[in-house]
Amino acid sequence: MYAQTVADWRSLGPKADLWVFAYASLVWRPEFAAAEQRPATVWGHHRALRMWSRVNRGTFERPGLVFTLLPGGRCQGLALKVPHQQVMNVLPALWEREMPNPIYDPRWLRCHTPAGPVTALAFTLSTHSPQHTGALSVAEYRAIFEHACGRYGSTRDYALQTWHGLRAHGIHDRGLQRLLQDCGIPIDTDTPHTP
To answer: Rg for the chain (alpha carbons), in Å?
Structure first.
């Protein structure tokens, strides 16, 4: 999949930059310096905390959760630009971070930004994947938030960091807000955040 992704990027043109669609931890911890970042909306996918994590945010005994892009709806995030000459320095580390196991489905999605559309690499998940949780009840989310913790910390902290990261860029995810509130996790919805 990595080789195909590199080939897909090269097919965009001999001097094509790489755009990456950030919708969760890449918003608040990208681990690379983007030459440009734009607010971006993707249609046809939505952000969902519905992917099992048995290492990073949980364990095999107590699986945690991470965000993914699932089919349907729309998602607001950031389009991050990697200049052409830096792509082969940035992409291997990004791939290792997002795809240590071939779980995500890397896709090229059209991102609508204030400066015009860009085609960006995004990490999505099929609803047929065994990593897809399916529908979870509030009680199940509460139990995961209370107990799931992996090598990068807890699912609870990850969800909160994503909430704050999105808000810092002026992105309001009502579904995530409702989930956190339903699970009794305090969030400050009154403090204004600006991009």
So the answer is: 17
98: annotated active-site residue: yes
Mean of pLDDT over the chain: 94
Model confidence over 83-94: pLDDT tens digits?
999 999 999 999
Work out the burial of residue 41: count CB atoms within 10 Å of its CB; fewer than 13 is exposed, 13-18 middle, 19 or more buried: middle
Residues near 74 by Cβ (< 8 Å), separated by ≥ 6? 41, 42, 43, 44, 45, 46
Domain segments of the chain: what residues? Answer: 2-182
Condensed to tens digits (0 to 9), the pLDDT of residues 121-180 reads 999 999 999 999 999 999 999 999 999 999 999 999 999 999 999 999 999 999 999 999
Question: Which of the following is catalytic: 36, 61, 96, 98?
Answer: 98
The fold adopted by the segment(s) 2-182 is Hypothetical upf0131 protein ytfp (3.10.490)
Query: Could you tell me where the beta strands, DSSP code E, fall in 2-156?
Result: 18-22, 36-53, 64-82, 105-112, 118-124, 149-150, 153-154
